[in-house]
Amino acid sequence: MTEIYVDADACPVKDEAIRVAERHGLIIHIVSNGGMRPVRHPLVRVVVVPQGPDVADDWIAERAGPGDIVVTGDIPLASRALAAGAAALGHDGRAFTKDSIGMALAMRDLMRELRETGQSKGGGPAFSKGDRSRFLSALETAVQSALRSPP
Q: Which distant-in-sequence residues (6+ apart) come within 8 Å of 22 by Cβ?
């Protein structure tokens, strides 16, 4: 059965993901390394992992598989999810695919290098209402696709 996994640290669309999961009766795992408020809903599983680099990512990657959906802003986690057969969505509604993940990883590495050498100072644009709307639409599409396709 399809489940949704949310890499919740710094995720601006947790509430939206929960609403979509509720609408479809899907279990949703909200995974972080702390600071989460309790959610009292039988479909929501709040998972608090120990502090440390990539601990939440590892928890998600070890569990997500075919038919599941991973919501993350972390491109390496999106790559791991795709390799496991899960769908992966960015917070802005961008669907990561097997065709696009290589370029996304390369751009991530390039931008990190530019920041480290001082050639780039800032991040991307601020999260907008349009990003939130695109995310809701993309998650709804991903859920419907997952429910139509057997894992």
A: 41, 43
The CA distance from 112 to 42, in Å, is 40
CATH hierarchy code of domain 3-148:
3.40.50
Q: Quickly state the pLDDT bin for 109 (edges 50, 70, 90).
A: low
Q: In angstroms, rounded to a whole number, what is the distance separating the alpha carbons of residues 88 and 56?
A: 15
CB atoms < 10 A from the CB of 129, how many? 7
* pTM, 2 dp: 0.85
| Domain chopping of the chain, boundaries | 3-148
- Amino acid symbol at 148: R
- Retrieve residue 69's tokens: 């959906």
**What is the per-residue pLDDT across 41-62, written as a single tens digit (0 to 9) for each?**
899 999 999 998 899 999 999 9
